[in-house]
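Q: I'm writing a short explainer about Helicase for a general audience and would like to include a description of its predicted shape. Could you first generate the structure from this sequence?
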Amino acid sequence: MDMLAAARAGEHALLVAPTGAGKTLAGFLPTLTDLIEIPMEGLHTLYVSPLKALAVDVRRNLLTPIEEMGLPIRVETRTGDTPSDRKARQRARPPQILLTTPESLSLLLSYPDSFLLFANLKTVIVDEVHAFATQKRGDLLSLSLARLQAINPALRRVALSATVADIDAYRAWLAPDGDINAVTPVIGEAGADPNVAILIPEGRIPWSGHSGKYAARQVMAEIERRSTTLVFCNTRGLAELIFQELWSANEANLPIAIHHGSLSIEARRKVESAMAAGKLRALVATASLDLGVDWGNVDCVIQMGAPKGSSRLLQRIGRANHQLDMPSEAILIPGNRFEYLEARAALDAVEEGERDADDFRPGSLDVLAQHIMGLACAAPFREEDLLREVRSALPYSALTEEAFANVLHFIEGGGYALRAYDRFKRLTRDEDGAWRVSHPRFIQQHRMNAGIIVDQPVLDVRFANGRKLGTVEESFAATLRPGDSFFFSGMALEVVRIELTDLVVRATAKQARIPSWGGTRMAMSTRLADRVRHFLAEPDEWHRFPEDVREWLEMQKHRSALPQPGQLLIETFPHEGRHYLVCYSFEGWNAHQSLGMLLTRRMDAQGLMPLGFVSNDYALAVYGMKPVTDPQSLFSADILDHEFIDWVEQSSLLKRAFRDVAVISGLIERQHPGKRKTGRQVTFSTDLIYDVLRKYEPGHMLLKAAWADARARMTDVGRLGDLIDRASATMLHVSLDRVSPLAVPVLIIIGREQVAQAAAEDALLIEAEALVAEAMRPD
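A: Of course. Here's the predicted structure. Afterward I'll give you a sentence or two in plain language.
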């Protein structure tokens, strides 16, 4: 009723309530009440979701009470999957309730009739606001909300979430002009505590790996004794792998399926409908189903591998027993011993109500460029008016006049170095000072290419009859030849031929491999990392752990050391003719990858002859021909000023970041009328422009945006910087005569990365057992 009271008072509202508490219905209650009391034609409420599947699911659940009450209220979805004829009809005759995504909303605002469409809009509901508020999609949505508020100043904003750590930060993000007091916080009742267990496998917890596939038979046994189980994996490749492992263990031949973002629309919709109808016993899924999808018949959630964050875990747990008064049931399957500690840390965080911190940052300029171009497609604008509107969105509240002018001039002609090319002259300034689109072709170009999510270049996976199964990335397709086979959509497929944009396949019974997808791996949150460090430093906690985990930690304490919270443990030791340095920093795989690059460059400069490095979320191991006797010199603070900048500029990292911002800002097209650019064509175009700008205009807006992306997202440089800052003062260097127990999980990766997988399992197993025996020997 608090949501209804806020609506009656015309107040913006942020509803934070546990999964299963009925947040979505509470968000829509004022809309339904209003439409019952004062029926109207035209758009009343806009619902914005981070996922297409969530919009479809909400529509299905919303239609039930509307139809039961016989209300003349139309509810429709508008996403990238919506047919073009329906999109056109929605603009001419909109429903009272429209369910959409940030990208589709942005496109709606690019039409001249958007002023009429949204003139009487009463409410915008942003669902699962935590999923995108701190990202570029959140930047785009905040700008769209500012435009909607400008069209109708009486518009009311509502946001919903189950996992918000800093309520006031989200209130400020949601409010016009960041006015936190304009948003009423509504806190839902706490539901039943979840029932979460960590599965202890038959035998012992593995030393390495992150998939949890060793437990496939036990997971299948859990599936067999339940009605419906959701099996979450952290990546698409892992989902394909786990599905195959479960299918091999599925002796009862139960109906199980797979769902992830690279599958075709038809495949995803078929699976979603089957789940809603209760026809599946298990569904293997990724983050494509993390949020809000309400399938009441799910009675257990299984997380394969570590959850990486307490908020993500809580969100996934909430998919089971989707009712407030019933405890959600979940099982965690740690992939290795470190992941056991992480899983235990996540359970403790959930029990104590701790959420992962959210990192709000200034809005991205490439997103702003796309938004401005979209608004120009709808109508000419004056610079001072639009700047005032843009600043009313919190991420852009500190935007300077100079920065805004730079963005405008970038859209006007591409910048100084590109001003001679007509294809970059998208905006023109009239004599009266108004900005307008230079030519109608740029309007079509914008609408075909707008969007914030820049996927890796992909090929469509198709059968010879044309049926599309989904997409794989070009980088993976480039490793395939006709006759090769791979798992996709739960099937083994053989490559028939590779065309410009298609990978033509047929079903096969051959041995197959798992596709790899790019993208940043999810890193363990800093709060979970702190809890794992606490476990290592507190032997009194170890009685809670399985016997083999206790033995591992006790032997580490006996033979070397365990880092105290805030301390950076560095071990050095020889092993099989090489010298190793292992750094236990717990800053996540992404930051460790960057640090490995920097350390090997610095070791090379010191004549230490580095050979390579490997990392996981918890540790980084660098190995070479000479011993490291002074690790302090490798971790000095200037590494981020010298080696980091040099490495980023010479690597492909910055070029990849530039490709993304060039696409988002509209400088480079992904689509032309009647054809789609291949990933290679897009990359070739952006590489050319990148080289020109670096040479002739190094201060260009897009280069700055690319640097910001490369630093903040692609390398976790914030966590890397924190690590370097504390290294000198907190380093504990232990020189050993052989490998330590704590080093085993990361060292095992070296063999797995260097040797072909199919032929080497037995050899790797023997090698790993020898490594473990050496590390766990007490003398």
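A: For your explainer, you could say: The two ends are 67 Å apart (CA to CA).
Q: Perfect, that's easy to follow.
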